[in-house]
Specification:
Helix content is about 0%, strand content about 55%. The protein has about 140 residues and is mainly β.
Length: about 140
């Protein structure tokens, strides 16, 4: 299935949001920097949509990055870290066109890091606002720091 969500999505962290005054090598944003590969799932029976997120800590301490889908050709999706802590990250993805929803959407993904894993949930809404049109979870592993 082509969920075309994230995570986490994941998903694993990204763009402007966390404005720490600590050096780039310090602070919670550093825990989420790197390359993450994972899948988002709409249900327990879903085989998941594979994706890759690449992030880095900017000089201002914010986390920046993009998500790309590894199974389809689609433009990169910008990710903004809205909240970053030692144990969790909240990312906003998009706006982007979701093939699964056949709509322009924004996705909010909330993930918790444990070792080299970042797992959590997502909620997709129309880019223009409104009620959620899709929810699910994501799982990912850090591939490179």
């Amino acid at each position: 299935m082509r969920t075309l969500l994230c995570v986490a999505v994941v998903l694993a962290a990204c763009a402007p949001g966390e404005r720490s005054r600590t050096p780039a090598g310090a602070g919670p944003a550093h825990k989420y920097a790197g390359t993450w590969e994972g899948r988002s799932y709409r249900s327990a029976s879903d085989t998941g949509t594979p994706w890759r997120i690449v992030t880095a800590v900017a000089p201002d301490g914010s986390l920046r990055g993009t998500m790309t889908y590894t199974s389809v050709t689609a433009p990169p999706v910008p990710i903004r870290a809205r909240d970053v802590s030692d144990t969790a990250v909240v990312n906003e993805l998009g706006p982007y066109h979701s093939i699964a929803a056949n709509a322009d959407v924004v996705t909010v993904a909330t993930g918790k890091v444990r070792g080299d894993s970042l797992n959590g949930t997502f909620e997709m809404r129309p880019a223009a606002g409104g009620n959620p049109i899709m929810t699910g979870n994501f799982r990912s592993k850090r591939v490179t720091p």
